[in-house]
Amino acid sequence: MSGVVGALVEAWQELRINKVRILLALFGVALSVAALASVVGLGDLAREGYKVQAERSQGRTATVALSVNGPTTPDPVRLEKAYQGIVERYGISYWTHTAQAQARFQFPGGVQDVQMTLVDPGYGFIHRTDVTQGSWFAADDEQRLAPAVVVSEAFYNAAGRPDLVRKPLAKLAGDQETTAVIIGVVPDLFPQAPPSAFMLNGAAQTAGIAEGYGQFKVWVQDGQAAVLMPAMQADLQAQFPDLYIDASRMDYAAYGDPIAIAQLAVGAIAGLVLLLGAVGMLNISMVTIRYRVREIGIRRSFGATSGRIFVGVMMESLVATSVAGIAGVMVAIAVVKNPWIQEKVAPALSEYPPFPVEAAMLGFGAAVLVGALAGAIPALVAVRIKVIDAIRF
Amino acid sequence: METLLSLRGVTRTVVLPDDQELHILRGVDLEIASGDHTAIVGRSGCGKSTLLNLLGLLDVPSSGELDFLGTPVQKISSNQRARLRGSTVGFVFQQFNLLQGRSALDNVMTPLLYASGRDFWRRRELAMEMLDRVGLAARADAKPNMMSGGEQQRIAIARALVRRPRLILADEPTGALDVETGQTVMALLDSIATESAAALVTITHDHNVAALARSRYRLDAGVLQALEGVPA
Ligand SMILES: Nc1ncnc2c1ncn2[C@@H]1O[C@H](COP(=O)(O)OP(=O)(O)OP(=O)(O)O)[C@@H](O)[C@H]1O
Ligand SMILES: [Mg+2]
Is A151 within 8 Å of A195 (Cβ atoms)? Predict the structure, then answer.
């Protein structure tokens, strides 16, 4: 007990006396620890943001798109029955048709083309569409007389930001005079996006909006995608033996983790910087150990064992780099939790995840490792110092 | 009187870089009992420090027998020697050898860092007592480089004695001091050693210093001879 405390006392004294040199060496260590922990933290943040964004445009993990393609065009009624059969047989809870269409709307400022996405209610879950106002489609919205639309922020602005509680109408300009009810608003997908809107498939038919090429998407549990995809494909193939059936994953996770590579690259650079910091630290410790030969000799003559000398020199390095490690991690937390940086790294997120524990552990662990490495070599040198030679004058 | 050290035919030989052997000590016989005050004189380079290093367990003989508290030193491991040295021996050096940058108090506490139990935990108190004993309690926070040679050597004496060693080894403790200061320091060392019933072995060039000791030896060409009477 007194041995451990004694070694700590010694290390602390040594650090206090060599403040400047230690501080300089530690600056590099702290900086690279900060870089390392920040890379991991920012990477996690970016991944989270990217995931949300990717899931918005491509669908949640795991979204499977089914399509039946010709030589001949399949009978739409039979096809729809087949799709609904899949939904029933495989216990699919979220599904949607998606199709793109154009529509012209009458805005206070004039008529404008609007990009329409024709969907089913399940689209909201699959694509993580969060409404900022109003609500997403419910199943019975198809039965409305005036078709319901969920509009983008840009559309909403063009319409003069009406109060949704009063069920504002939007006029479709065309041969057939139709009015739609705005029931919800979603954020723009990107800044300066042109006005766009969602409408339910059934309602679009009534409104006479021509539908383009469509897809049928279902959501399954991530782990089940590999099993269900071929099963659903075979199922459809059996019903349409002469057509090409395609079942493929749409979500970003299907292509591997795109952040990991960037994170690995930056992490490797930070690791290199840390290594340089370790070499600098080692260099300084080696130089000072030469100045400390006499001091170590004196300690030995007053009863310090060689193990104690080893631990003392080692501990000095460890105590120093641990402090640097904590400082580095604190800098990393300040960086990763900085609101401006968060906004830039993960613009898609509205709520940010906490600073990852692994990042803090990694940073601190790396610092301790550097301390151990940079301490072990001079400690070995210190142990080999001959007492008689050290105190001779 | 208990025998602390007993040397019979102790030699110390070093191999020089050109493979020649240098016989520094050639058969030293010496007995030191607790409470003894011994002085060793001799010309520069005759092997006095080498002998003192052997007495203080910093080194082991090349041949011959050296018993420390009845145990042959060859039989104890270097770690055990370090502990034994810490608990039993106190060194005073010619160049003081204080730790630079550390306060007087820190310096005096240093040996207690290697002690265990009560001595370790009470190190500040014990060091302060010792500083008080050498008359430097008021300078506890001063750094050695701000002190006079005499003061530094008194700090070194406090450090050597703070663990109440049974053997005090002083290698030319007055060598770096003027005659008067040297005498005060030596008188202090002598009286503290007497108080604690410790054995004191002093290496010196100064016959006045040697005169304080009860038994005196001369080391010449690696051979130790007892001196009769007080040399002029
Ligand atoms: N490890 C060693 N290697 C080579 N020579 C050594 C070694 N140790 C001591 N010597 C030599 O042995 C001789 C005695 O050394 P020692 O230090 O014991 O002398 P001393 O009597 O203490 O001298 P001084 O009064 O000058 O301190 C010296 O000539 C010294 O150079
Ligand atoms: Mg000498």
Answer: yes
Domain residue ranges in chain B:
37-53+77-226
C-beta atoms of A302 and B111 within 8 A: yes
Which pLDDT belongs to residue A254?
Answer: 66
Please enumerate in sequence order all residues whose Cβ is within 8 A of that of A160, keeping only pairs 6 or more positions apart, or say none: A107, A108
A165 touches chain B (CB under 8 A): no
Per-residue model confidence as pLDDT tens digits over A296-326: 999 999 999 999 999 988 888 888 889 889 9
Q: Which residues of B197-228 are buried (b: 16+ CB within 10 A; e: fewer)?
A: ebbbbbbbebeebbebbeebbbbeebebeeee
To the nearest 10°, the Cα dihedral for B52, B53, B56, B62?
-110
pTM, whole model, 2 decimals?
A: 0.68
ipTM: 0.91
Name residues contacting ligand 1 (CB within 6 A). B 14, 16, 22, 24, 42, 44-50
Of B101, B106, B111, the CB nearest to A303: B111
Q: Which fold has domain B37-53+77-226?
A: Rossmann fold (3.40.50)
- Does A72 contact B at CB distance below 8 Å? no
For residue A308, give the chain B residue with the closest CA: B114
Provide the 3-class DSSP secondary structure of residue A75: coil
